Amino acid sequence: MVIKFPYQGSDFTACGDLVKQHTPEFLRQLFYQMLRIRRIEEAVENKYHQDQMKTPIHLVIGQEAASVGACSALKKSDVLYCGHRTHGAYLAKGGDLKGMLSEFFCRLNGCAGSRGGSMHLMDKSVGMAGSSAIVAGAVPIATGAALSIQMKGEEHVSCVFLGDAATEEGAVWESLNFAALKKLPIVYFCENNFFSVCTPLEERQPDGVEIYKKAAAFGLHSVQVDGSNVLAVRQAVAAAVARARSGEGPSFVEAQVYRWRGHGGAGDDSDSGYRDPAEVAHWQKHCPVDGYADLLLGEKRLSVQQREVMEQQINDEINAAFQHAESSPNPTEEDLYTHAYCN
Ligand SMILES: Cc1ncc(C[n+]2csc(CCOP(=O)(O)OP(=O)(O)O)c2C)c(N)n1
Fold first, then answer.
1. Residue 81 C-alpha to ligand 1 middle, in angstroms?
2. What superfamily would CATH give domain 27-288+297-329?
3. Which of 17, 153, 245, 267 gives the lowest tally of CB atoms within 10 Å of its CB?
4. How far is the CA of 112 from the centre of ligand 1 (A)?
5. Is the confidence at residue 301, as pLDDT, over 80?
């Protein structure tokens, strides 16, 4: 059994000297992206009670390093699928913030044309291929995309984000078996945040059977990584992507993370009793964004002033994007008949 409570924060030396392998600009870019996601999520959360965003939301606060680390190893042309917790994946893959917020407000120029809401963000121009609110629903679709890539002899790869609960669905294991059999160019990226809504992992899966080991048993190259360590996540996913691109087949990366907010909506819901608020506080002490900032500051790859400039830029972008979304047109009755297909 994985014990989630004694987590002691990212060990940035665990995978060799990763800081030296990247340029200062690249290291700062990873930080910028994590900070951007954090601030966007906070802004969404703050405004959610106004009830103008007509969509359920599933915040990724606490899981930013997983989104950014994984997507930093993908090219724009690589296709990404995910489940209901989409915001981090969409933004890290290069999705447009105005398009995302407009989608939350169900406005016509939302990235899914107001039809998807937060759980169905997509933007083909950056390879955000789609998401499904059906737990594990995106996994066979991403596997099919990988088969298509292989059959067409294309060079890009397919990647799918899934939660720990998705590994309780048969479709995941059918997909993994097929991908391993056919050596498909795909990376299964499992964000294990230890909960399915309010049910902890230890009440859903047998003690001592780790998720990544099950994937290995299906014949996939499979690793477990600290999902709060952006550099470690990037390293693991980059290796998996390289394998997929060179025809070595599928990989499974289990990133252990912790969501700070409730399963859905704004705020923390720990007081409902399904998890100990002290556990949440413990993980918050080991913040993936601040921990990485401290590393960069210590290694002189980031200055306090650079961080302030980033905060300002992000703040300006968020304000402009909210203004854009809130002033965007609502769909009309006529719009109901566009993008509708029937025979
Ligand atoms: C097939 C299916 N069963 C149940 C649900 C209800 N449901 C929505 S999210 C969720 C938990 C998902 O947990 P996980 O996949 O670990 O992702 P996380 O929310 O932790 O990011 C459940 C059970 C669903 N959407 N689809």
1. 15
2. Thiamin diphosphate (ThDP)-binding fold, Pyr/PP domains (3.40.50.970)
3. 153
4. 21
5. yes
